[in-house]
Specification:
It comes from Lentzea albida. The chain is built from 40 helices and two strands. The chain has a domain of 68 residues. It is flat. Helix content is 57%, strand content 1%. Helix 1 packs parallel to helix 34 and helix 5 runs parallel beside helix 6. With 527 residues, it is mainly alpha-helical.
Length: 527
């Protein structure tokens, strides 16, 4: 599939006549079905392609009734069974389908199964079909009891893991040691049965996350050496405080304990030096009095944890913004006012830039200031996501590949940059989805135009030597061409007399010695 066409299909600024053209392309059906501007005619055309993903999307959006959908194949039929208004006869027909893979998919897709279909599938010769039935649907008690004696281990495992399996059946299955792992992972397994599973080592990882076990079970599990078991235990809000205190031997475990919503405040203070600048569940649930108590701590890391919480009282936020420790101050940046943001950047500089760029209120001039003063990958990516970033600021972010991908879809990116990104596989889809893409470029793409040519305003520019030497090539595109993989393109750029200063600076450091030498010669000639 053409990546640019996929992006174009999701472009909110796509003109109606081009939408009409794209709707006729079967390969774009799933992308186009997501659009909010589809007419009844568009919906009918999309349905005619028989794309099950598109059908599912259109059903979910309420744009079509199951009775209106042409059944092109089994995949479309299965999608239809997931709608509450689907014809029950379709479900029954699929239950008798000759392909066991189709029968096994039916329980997963169908929102409900008639009693006779449940009975039919429970007697299926293919174990994977019966296992799927057990996994996705609640069974009548007689059927579940019968399946607990099924000869296939796959079926019994599915029954033991099924959250809708009746408790009495789970009790009966607990006599089979091979099912201990599945029973332990099933929240429907009675706690009394789960406790007995402690003797099976394979069950302990799952028992560690259960919240309905006696304290002594958690104490036994805390003696384990397996990191996975200890991590599950450390995250469990039902684990007693004295057990949590035993789970702080490693940095990784301390991070998990800090995220436990039931961590005692004194333990949180103790572990705060290991904390990252992220909102913790216990901080999110703290009372106003607790927040003020923590904010008054002598430990900067404790104050930092409070500073990460959004919606703080204005006086408390102001106090934390003015905190002399940059770690604390930076943590307030995503929630700060514009005036506070400016103060933070002025006081602490690049140390607060990454989090300041996350603030939805951050103004364009401040984003540009940060992008030009501390162009790290983290900051570039945050700015490339920001709706307030100007085109000039976004251009500063393009050296980082991930930021370039994010910026490609940003409506403020300069048009020639957007168009240039259509020629690169990594950014083509995002660029084509950009609502600022000129209509004539959209027409070029919809008409099957290739990606080897970059369409810029009213001209077509080849990204080769001729573009590098053309007086019509924009400064932004010239700067982009300084990283062109073709040596000849960079040599042609180095010979230009009107190359922007930033482009010359990049070329004099080119890994190819001939390109670097040519750029230095041109710079000397200019002087």
């Amino acid at each position: 599939m053409n990546a640019a066409l996929e992006g174009l299909a999701s472009n909110p600024a796509l003109p109606g006549d081009l939408l009409d053209r794209l709707v006729a392309m079967p390969s774009l059906a799933s992308e186009l079905a997501e659009r909010a501007d589809l007419s009844a005619s568009h919906v009918r055309t999309l349905l005619s392609h028989g794309d099950s993903t598109a059908v599912h999307t259109l059903l979910q959006k309420g744009l079509v009734h199951p009775a209106e959908v042409p059944i092109a194949d089994e995949s479309v039929a299965l999608v239809l069974t997931g709608h509450p208004d689907a014809d029950p006869s379709l479900t029954r027909a699929l239950a008798f389908h000759p392909d066991p893979a189709v029968r096994a998919s039916l329980p997963e897709w169908a929102c409900s199964l008639p009693t006779d279909v449940i009975e039919r599938l429970s007697l299926d010769d293919a174990p994977e079909v019966v296992a799927a039935l057990v996994t996705f649907h609640a069974l009548p008690l007689p059927v579940a009891k019968a399946l607990s004696r099924h000869p296939s281990t796959e079926v019994r495992r599915a029954l033991a893991a099924g959250s809708s399996t009746p408790p009495s059946v789970l009790v009966a299955l607990s006599t089979e040691d091979a099912l201990a792992r599945e029973l332990a992972s099933n929240p429907a397994t009675p706690a009394s049965i789960a406790v007995d599973l402690l003797r099976h080592h394979a069950s302990r990882y799952f028992l560690a996350s259960r919240t309905d076990l006696p304290a002594e079970v958690y104490e036994v599990l805390a003696s384990e050496f397996e990191p996975g078991i200890l991590a599950e235990l450390a995250a469990n809000p039902a684990v007693p405080a004295h057990v949590l205190r035993r789970l702080t031997d490693t940095r990784a475990l301390r991070h998990v304990v800090l995220r436990n919503p039931a961590i005692p405040l004194d333990l949180l203070r103790e572990l705060a030096p290991a904390a990252r600048a992220e909102q913790l569940p216990r901080i999110a649930s703290a009372t106003p009095a607790e927040l003020r108590e923590l904010a008054a701590s002598q430990e900067a890391q404790v104050r930092m944890l409070v500073a990460t919480r959004p919606g703080l009282p204005a006086d408390l936020l102001a106090a934390l913004v003015a905190d002399p420790d940059p770690v604390v101050a930076a943590a307030t940046a995503p929630s700060a006012t514009v005036a506070q943001l400016r103060d933070l950047v002025a006081w602490h500089g690049p140390r607060v830039f990454p989090r300041a760029a996350l603030n939805p209120l951050c103004p364009p001039d401040l984003l540009h200031h940060m992008a030009s003063r501390a162009p790290s990958a983290e900051i570039r990516r945050a700015i490339a996501r920001h709706p307030n970033a100007s085109g000039e600021t976004l251009v500063l972010c393009l050296e980082d590949p991930q930021a370039r991908y994010l910026a490609a879809a940003h409506p403020n990116l300069p048009v020639d940059e957007i168009v240039g990104m259509l020629g690169r596989e990594f950014t083509a889809r995002a660029a084509a989805s950009n609502p600022s893409l000129p209509v004539h470029v959209m027409e070029h793409l919809a008409g099957g135009g290739g990606h080897a040519r970059l369409v810029c305003e009213d001209e077509v520019i080849d990204p080769d030597v001729s573009a590098a030497g053309s007086p019509a090539t924009s400064p932004v595109l010239l700067y982009r061409l300084t990283t062109h993989p073709e040596r000849a393109v960079r040599l042609a750029l180095a010979a230009r007399r009107d190359l922007p200063r930033r482009a010359y600076e990049r070329l004099v450091n080119d890994p190819d010695p001939d390109v670097a030498a040519a750029a230095r010669r041109r710079a000397r000639d200019e002087r």
